[in-house]
Amino acid sequence: IFTSFTLPRRPRLLTLHSLFTKSIHDDERRMDHRYLSWQDVAKRRTLLDFSSSLTSSSFEGDEEVEPSSVLEYGRFQLGLFLSGVFIVALYVYAEFLHHVRMKRMHNGGYNKGLAEDSIEMRMAGTKKFDVLLEGGGGGGGGGGNTPDGSMISNSMQDMSDEDKKRSFANFTDSFGRQNSQSGNMSDAVGASPSTGDNGNVKFTNIGAMRILQGDADAIERARLILRSWAELFFILFVFYVCDRTNTFPERTKSYSRDFFIAIFVTLAAYGCYQTLRQSKTSAPLNREQTEEWKGWMQVLFLLYHYFKASEIYNAIRIFIAAYVWMTGFGNFSYYHVRKDFSVGRFSQMMWRLNFFVLFVCIALRNDYVLYYICPMHTLFTLFVYFSLLVFKEHNTSTNMIVAKMVILIVLVYVIWEVPGVFTVLFKPFEWLLSYTDPKKPDVNPMHEWFFRSGLDRYVWIYGMVCAFVHPKYEAFVRWVDEKPTKEKTVIQGLILTVNTIAAYWWYTTYYVLPKLEYNVVHPYTSWIPITIFIIFRNFSLTMRSYFIHIFCECGKITLETYISQFHIWLSSSVPNGQPGMLLGLFPEEYPVLNFMLCTAIYVGISQRIFMLTNDLKVACVPNANNRLLSLHAYFGVAWFIGMGIAGSALL
To answer: Residue 163: enclosing H or E segment and its boundaries?
Structure first.
């Protein structure tokens, strides 16, 4: 399999290369943040350089270097391949065990649907590795209740509770597998998830360890989770084949303004006429509205990349700022209202942001910052979380919240605008946050992270401010709605007039600037169009009460579509390469058909990645048992170490 991949790779160990090869030429770099201000960097950098496509060649200045004929792989990359083979084999074995169990039950005269229900009841939910260790509700016993009632099929929902218990008891008595691990799990089953910690859980008892020990019952119980892992590894394999081999040809980007506009207008028109739905609430910035907002921005963002629509560069910058604004708005709303600073919930958030991108970085040997949205949102999420965690008992005080926001503004100013501070602060994380574009090897490897994170360094704080004043804004719009028709019309007309004037002023003053000049003012002005849009979108009850469902669905998978576009929609061919070409499934004479087919596959895979990420989050990141969560973390670290060792053995 390895020898069939003919594309050369540069010698480099994944994204951790700086741990082993420290640069000694920083003084020769063209971008040194110890001496350059933010304005200097912004003037020299564009969003994404699609001006010329990447090929299998690497570049040193203007001189083209012939690629090496030797295939080179990272140790973690090979270890990930072995892990994928192992997981797929385990899943096949789990399906075999399940099939054998069903066949035995069928031969024993049991109703097939009832037998399926009994197995699911005994397993107490197959969406988690360790639901029995988390306890609660008779999860591992014969009580006949599952943590999630949706796991019981229709054949059993029609039965009485007594019939269910009798059927379950008959099943477990006949096959004697219910208590096969009672000696290992007796201490854990009775634990209550409300305790948040279970000191009786042992590392050798968690589901993953029991699977490695060959426990057939644990393997069968984890059948659906193993299926999710197998699907994930298959998707990574597809990424590799599409973007790192010559299996599919590359196509050149071309931009047609008419075609670009036609695609978006057609999608928007279809959404308005066919998927317009009423929101569950008429509150401003409700969940459906923000998902819709993310969705239509993501569509334009992706089309911008696909067609190289450089004329809307400034608009794309605003869209990315709006995503970052939502990071501050959403996280502040959750932590300030619910006051849930639990380790489990925080870990699930980090999983959502970084799980898939971590595996993609390993499989494709790309740097983390190539997918800069992930580290940027992670950083600002950490800022929001820890700013509210400190003195959290005083978060109900307006003065405390204002003080925290002022401190955050000062902190951001010092980090990004005082020369040298950024370099010193992020130096320990250079192994994780450095990025070297193969077309620009002489640029400081921390420049990309400095530029990306700096462009939207303030807007997430503005998101926190908006979340804090959101109750007052909601009260204001409801007050307007309750006014008599004449007064309401006058107030809404005044709001629209002022907002339109502000939009025109911002457009003529800032938006029309050339992109390099716009980069300089963007960090300080991006909040203006965001505020204008929020006011337009929520100025009336009708506007707040409806949303376009198709854009809402697109908004749910923005992270997955962002990551996947690099490898199964666009093409870069080399590690860390910017996607300057298109994936080709049709001959070059059929660009529209190629766009349609690639887009259908790409969106479908992104949707599936979203579902897999959530399924595996439930399985691997329990939010109600800190002890179990820590054991899963230990297992994950041990597994990655094992991947490195196994990969080294193959090099």
So the answer is: helix 161-175
pLDDT value at position 457?
Answer: 96
DSSP 362-398: HHHT--GGGGTHHHHHHHHHHHHHHHHHTTGGGTT-H
DSSP letters along 510-528, please?
IITS-HHHHHHHHHHHTHH
Q: In degrees to the nearest 10, what's the CA dihedral of 276, 278, 284, 287?
A: -80
Dump pLDDT digits (tens) for 322-374.
Answer: 999 999 999 999 999 999 999 999 999 999 999 999 999 999 999 999 999 99
Of 48-62, 113-127, 294-308, 604-618, which gets the smallest average pLDDT? 48-62
Contact status, residue 252 vs residue 581, Cβ threshold 8 Å: yes
In DSSP terms, 250 is beta-bridged to 583
Give the per-residue pLDDT at 493: 95
Give Cα separations from 161 to 135, 171, 261, 465 (angstroms): 21, 15, 58, 51
Q: Is pLDDT above 90 for 141?
A: no
Is 65 strand, coil or helix? strand
Task: Answer whether residue 287 shows pLDDT above 90.
Answer: yes
Handedness of CA 237, 243, 246, 248 (dihedral sign): positive
Amino acid occupying residue 373 = I
Range with lowest mean pLDDT among 148-157, 606-615, 638-647: 148-157
Is 427 exposed, middle or buried, given 0-12, 13-18 or 19+ CB atoms closer than 10 A? exposed
Q: How far from the centroid of its chain's Cα atoms is residue 572's Cα?
A: 21
Whether 133 and 203 have beta carbons less than 8 Å apart is answered as no
d(CA 618, CA 352): 11
pTM of the complete model: 0.81
Closest CA to 416 of 386, 374, 385, 460: 460
**What is the CB neighbour count within 10 angstroms for residue 109?**
6
Count of H-run helices and E-run strands, the chain = 28, 7
Q: 């006058």: which residue's tokens?
A: 490
Would you state the structure tokens that stand for residue 584, as one six-digit string?
A: 């080709």
Residue 139 one-letter amino acid: G
Q: Report pLDDT digits (tens) over 520-560.
A: 999 999 999 999 999 999 999 999 999 999 999 999 999 99
Report how far residue 168's alpha carbon sits from residue 143's, in angstroms, rounded to the nearest whole number.
9
Kindly report the length of the chain: 651
Q: What are phi and psi of 58, to 5 degrees?
A: -105, 160
pLDDT of amino acid 107: 79
Neighbours of 457 (CB within 10 A): 23
pLDDT at 69 over 90: no
Q: What is the pLDDT of residue 164?
A: 43
The C-alpha atoms of residue 336 and residue 464 are separated, in whole angstroms, by 10
Give the containing element (helix H, strand E) for 581. Answer: strand 581-583
Q: 10 Å Cβ neighbour count for 30?
A: 11
